[in-house]
Amino acid sequence: TRSILLNSRPQGMPTQENFKFTEEDLPELQEGEVLLKALYVSVDPYMRGRMSDAKSYAAPYKVHEPIMGGIVAEVVESRNNQYKKGTIVEGRLPWQTYSISQGKGLNVIDPDLAPLGYYLGVLGMPGLTAYFGLLRIGDPKEGETVVVSGAAGAVGTVVGQIAKIKGCRVVGIAGSDDKMKYLQGKLGFDEAINYKTTDNIAAALEAACPDGVDIYFDNVGGEISDAVYPLLNNFARIAVCGQISLYNTTTQPTGPRVEPILLRTKSLMKGFIVGDYASDFRQGVKELAAWVKDGKLQYEQTITDGFDQIPDAFLGLFKGENTGKQLVHVADP
Ligand code: NDP
């Protein structure tokens, strides 16, 4: 099998040097084990946190061990009665072309229901993040204004569309003109702001949100968020989902104090991790799948080809190279 190990912990922006490719033979399958062939590998911003050893909600990756993440794989050999040869599964697996599993934590997926990559996106972790963050924390009501940052990514695209389903005015913030077109065209966002080319994001937001902001779904943090807070309405809700603009900073980030705004507007600001809602995942996937089936929820994937491209695809997340969910296609079933 070929593997990608964490070679060293990044300081600031990660680079290729932080990853190492190795090749080795796998041992023979033991009773209860399955041999898995990776088909689609998910690269996700949270992995940047696990590459560091700073305190976080997920344990750090170990140096010189394979990076782990969401993978869709095929059972190509089985000595486990639960998983027949040919079964397609999703699970937290090592970045390896082939891996051995005892079957724990694997979810069997139906390749006929949706494209395989969807189980790592809209019907997987990012889709559920959007679903529970928006519905449970944002609690959107018809006519309210929702701002979402990181709007053209795996989570953001789903947040904005669910907000539209709920009858909200939706304003997305993302980093390219193509993404603007995509958000306002195919996805039906009311307004989109390109933070890379707009000189005054605060003024652009004010123009895009004439009735203020009721819900802010924050995927990026930093200066983009600083521009949103002054527009909060009374009883606004802020779902703090991600802070990608700060993941590679090497100094302590500072910004304006937001507490006076939260106090004046009596707003709720809540951080969350998708796993907090694990007991309701089944219900969430069911509703997401129904929206996808009905054509109410569009879904974009940026698929890079080849196991060797996994580190580059991951690094591309920090340069905005993806629209929708970034995946790497490694093999076909
Ligand atoms: P995306 O698909 O949105 O990919 C990342 C995107 O972030 C890029 O395409 C880029 O788009 C944008 N970006 C990168 N660097 C910056 C920057 N410095 N400032 C502003 N935008 C930037 O990733 P996901 O949808 O998977 O994740 C989105 C966020 O949600 C992340 O912060 C992630 O950590 C978080 N998350 C949190 C979870 C939770 O449980 N709380 C679970 C899953 C994700 P652009 O072109 O717009 O710059």
Summarize the structure.
By secondary structure, the protein is α/β, with parallel strands linked by helices.
CATH topology of the largest domain: Rossmann fold
Terminus-to-terminus distance: 17 Å
Residue runs with pLDDT of under 50 for 5 or more positions: none
What is the overall shape? globular
**DSSP strand (E) fraction?**
25-35%
Which whole number gives the mean pLDDT?
Answer: 97
SSE-based structural type: alpha/beta
Order of helices and strands: EEEHEEEEHEHEHEHEHEHEHEHE
Question: What key attributes describe this structure?
Answer:
333 residues, alpha/beta, Quinone Oxidoreductase, Chain A, domain 1, Rossmann fold, 2 domains, 7-stranded mixed sheet, 6-stranded parallel sheet, 25% helix, 26% strand, globular, binds NADPH dihydro-nicotinamide-adenine-dinucleotide phosphate, ER, oxidoreductase activity, ADH-like_C, oxidoreductase, EC 1.-.-.-
Structure write-up:
The chain is of the alpha/beta class. The protein folds into two domains: 150 residues, Quinone Oxidoreductase, Chain A, domain 1 (Alpha-Beta Complex), CATH 3.90.180.10; 152 residues, Rossmann fold (3-Layer(aba) Sandwich). It is 25% helix and 26% strand. It is built from nine helices and 15 strands. The strands form three sheets. Strands 3, 4, 5, 6, 7, 14 and 15 form a seven-stranded mixed beta sheet that branches. Strands 10-9-8-11-12-13 form a six-stranded parallel beta sheet, with helices on both faces. Strand 9, helix 4 and strand 10 form a beta-alpha-beta unit. Helix 2 crosses helix 3. The longest helix is centred in the middle third of the chain and has 14 residues. It is globular and about 65 Å long. The model has no long low-confidence stretch (mean pLDDT 97). The site of NADPH dihydro-nicotinamide-adenine-dinucleotide phosphate (NDP) has 32 residues, from helix 2 and helix 3. NADPH dihydro-nicotinamide-adenine-dinucleotide phosphate binds next to helix 2 and helix 3.
